[in-house]
Every structure is written in structure tokens, then in C-alpha cells.
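Q: I'm writing up a methods section and want to include an example of the input and output format. Could you take the sequence below and give the corresponding predicted C-alpha cells, formatted cleanly so I can copy it straight into the document?
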Amino acid sequence: MVNKIKKDTNKSVKLGLEEVGKEIQSLQKDLTKQDIKAVLNAFGVVLLSQLKKGNNISFKGLFTFSTRKSEEKTMTVQFGKDKGKEKKYPAKMVPVCKFGGVIKEGLKSVKVK
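A: Here is the clean output for your methods example:
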């Protein structure tokens, strides 16, 4: 599945919804662009709603989405008009993505310059 995606290791490219949709359509010719876009958008909605509830979403071998709590912090401002003042940052939930074995193994073959 992951091995079928074309490798272009010369340049890093940021892929958006449209580009990912085209890649999926090249692998699944029976799906329309609208079908793929609808599924990807729905996945984003489901992912966010489940993470807000504190649930994890796992695609075995590929990746796991979860959240962790970032504790409240107090920091000293290092520059700007408030330099030297203490500033409080509230606790918050932070998204986490842990990659699985299929992704890790697939990237081992990529040569780093």
C-alpha cells in the first residue's frame, strides 16, 4: 500500500487536500475526486471530534492520533516591550501523531543527503 506511492526524494513538497486526493485517485481509479474529497473531509471532522473527546484513532501499522495535556507554564518574556515580565500560558490539549512500523520501515530505504 505505502510502497506504491511514487518516490521523489530530491525535493520536499507540501501536499494539500487536492494533491493527496490526486494520489489516492491514481491508486483507486474507481473513486471520483468528489468521493475522495468527501471522505478526506469527513475523516478530518471525525478525527477532531474524537480527539476532543479524548479518544485515540489508530490505523494499525501506519499511525495513531492522540492528545496529551500540556501543563500550565509561566515564562519570562525574552524580548519586546514586555521583556523581563512573567507571562502565564494556560494548560491545553496538544495533538500527537505517532507513526507505526509500516511508515518507519518504508522510510528506512530513503537516503538522507
